[in-house]
Amino acid sequence: MKKNEKRQLSFNSIELRAEIGATGKKIIEGIIPYNSKSVPMFGVTEVISRTAFNKTISDKSIVRALYNHDTNRILGSTESNTLQLENTDDGLICRCELPNTSYANDMYEIVNRGDIKTMSFGFEPIKWLDDSKTKTRTLKEVKLIEVSYCVPFPAYEETNSVAYMRGLEKNNIDIEKLNEVLEKDTLQDDDKKIIKQTVDSLRSLIIEPEAVEPEQANATLPQVDTSNILLQLEAELAL
Fold first, then answer.
1. Do 138 and 50 contact (CB within 8 A), yes or no?
2. Which pLDDT tens digit goes with each residue over 175-188?
3. Rounded to the nearest 10 degrees, how much is the dihedral formed by the CA atoms of 222, 175, 231, 39?
């Protein structure tokens, strides 16, 4: 993981709450939990420490609330005080006063009905601690950029993770099966076979720049940096 890379993280345990405030405004509230494991991807889970957002809050950094990470659908911001962040022992409470827009009203109804209960947030990692035995990364300090409500599918890793996953699926890589294998403490022969097949598929995606014609490059799927995944998969095989 690199510093200053923009990433997203989600938790399955988050419960969103929708209500009408004292001023008659629609309010939505969720909490980013501390010391809870995130949604896993490729066998790695992350944990937010109690100190992770301290600097963001003390610096009074501008954090925006978004509808499902969509920067074109802003719900609030700390700058206008329509998004309030409260640091508690259990986690960071994110309370947003919604604007009177069609997408905000739609989101309120979806959450209020209980159709979607998850939220996510975008951040830049600053300090973290890795535990290779438990395959856990503890985020000690992050720069919080945005919090997103009404997230139907938990996001993870880079902002372009959805397109990234589609690219892998189109290359006959079973993401769910691979994730199940990497979650295991001990790999069986069939598990190693799946990892080897994935490594071969990923290697086939790596094309030397000089071998690609300009018109061919425009016709291909968005290029994905597979180096980190290859290293992790090969490390699994070496265990």
1. no
2. 667 766 766 667 88
3. 100
Helices (H), the chain: 54-58, 102-113, 161-170, 175-182, 189-205, 214-219, 227-238
CB 85 within 8 A of CB 93: yes
Query: What pLDDT is recorded for position 41?
Result: 64
Structural domain ending residue among the three candidates 93, 125, 159: 159
- Encode pLDDT of 3-33 as tens digits: 555 566 666 656 678 888 878 889 999 888 8
For residues 30 and 74, membership in a common domain is answered with: yes
Report the amino acid identity of residue 215: E
DSSP state of 181: H
Residue 1 lies in a domain: no
- Contacts for 231-236 with beta carbons within 8 Å, 24 or more apart? 232/42, 232/43, 232/44, 233/195, 233/198, 233/199, 233/202, 234/199, 236/43, 236/182, 236/187, 236/195
Q: Tell me: the pLDDT tens digits for 106-153?
A: 999 998 888 887 788 888 889 999 888 888 889 999 999 999 988 876
Short-list 58, 144, 48, CA closest to 89: 48
CA dihedral 63, 66, 71, 77 (to 10 degrees): -30
The answer to the question of residue 2 being in a domain is no
Q: Is residue 175 part of a domain?
A: yes
Which residue matches tokens 């290779």? 132
Cβ neighbour number for residue 161 with a 10 Å cutoff:
15
Give the span between the Cα atoms of 215 and 126, in whole angstroms. Answer: 39
Query: Residue 200: which residues within 8 A CB-CB, separation 6 or more?
Result: none
Intra-chain end-to-end CA distance of the chain, in Å: 21
